[in-house]
Prior knowledge:
The chain is α/β, with parallel strands linked by helices. It has two domains: 5-43 and 276-379, Type I PLP-dependent aspartate aminotransferase-like (Major domain) (Aspartate Aminotransferase, domain 2, 3-Layer(aba) Sandwich), CATH 3.40.640; 59-272, Aspartate Aminotransferase, domain 2 (3-Layer(aba) Sandwich). It is 40% helix and 13% strand. A seven-stranded mixed sheet has the order 2-8-7-6-5-3-4, with helices on both faces. β5, α7 and β6 form a beta-alpha-beta unit. The longest helix has 21 residues, at 276-296. It is globular, with a radius of gyration of 21 Å. The N and C termini lie far apart (53 Å).
Amino acid sequence: MQVSRRSQVDPFIVMDVMEAAAQAEAEGRHIIHMEVGQPGTPAPKGARAALASAMEEGALGYTTARGLPELRAGIAALYEKWYGVTISPERIIVTSGSSAGFLLAFTALFDAGDRVGLGLPGYPSYRQILRALSLQDVGFETTAANRFQPVPEDIADLDLKGLIVASPANPSGTILSRDALEKLIESCRDKDVAFISDEIYHGLHYGERAVSALELSNDVYVINSFSKYFSMTGWRIGWMVVPEDHVRTVERLAQNMFICAPHAAQVAALAALNCDDELSGNMDVYAQNRALMLEELPKAGFTRFAPPDGAFYIYADVSEFTDDSLSFSREILDKAGVSVTPGLDFDPHRGAQWLRFSYARCTEDIREGLARLRRFMMERGHI
């Protein structure tokens, strides 16, 4: 039986890396996970307690396609608290993680064959979801001088229908300033290019907070999730904010594609919005891990990277050690017992000379992983 051409997307390499790490663990090895952006902390206690209570009270069935009204109201309140922005809950669609948000956004905004821009390095699933929807991903190289964030000049000569931007970014962790984000939005508006802002790492910052695109314009799509800041990766719950006149379009797509986001996850997400103390404590751990990485990673020979403003990643240039980051990551897993992600996931061209290190896990694991990396690099003769 044949398969469609659009189904032939590239693998999400970090998931393959996770599989290799899991196999090593199944064989009895102790692996330090620095490959995946998954917090080492569970969902907040209040979220878990709320779901346990709801499960005792009765069945959890379908919700409306846009999500529980009280959850949408809670998310709207979050925008007021974090950014001082008033957003109508009617503009919010609760999704099955940010992945569903990308599917809905790309389907609502673009027709088959449309060209959508994204900066490289960047989150790999953007490219693959676009391809699966018969859209053209137009990757363009960002520069270290711009801290691997796009600038209007990067897209000036590109024929695009849309642009997707992430701040804080994955894999670099860098943040766009208010002025830089505003210039990008204005450039897209002038060219009639749809602007999609991936804000999944908002709340995870170590200095100035990230600016939401909604502070600058209502004519944008914003996608966010409970996965990262709220430590709810496996719950598969996120949201998107769309212009008022797009709500019904996205709602109809959500009705048919997903029916609704999981009711259980919505209950937990609503409670998680009120777990500030616990979430703030998680941020203290990430900040400690970041400081440890910035101090110790150079001692292991990894010296070329932009210090991250947010998220929980460091994207390091390893060109002095290898031009095959996939093989290099496999060697690190095999010999050091540390799982890291090759840059090929994020940049199919330059990524062969880059690695991404995640510091989302507990501090003890990060410290041990750094020690193992240092020993590995010493044994390899690199330091």
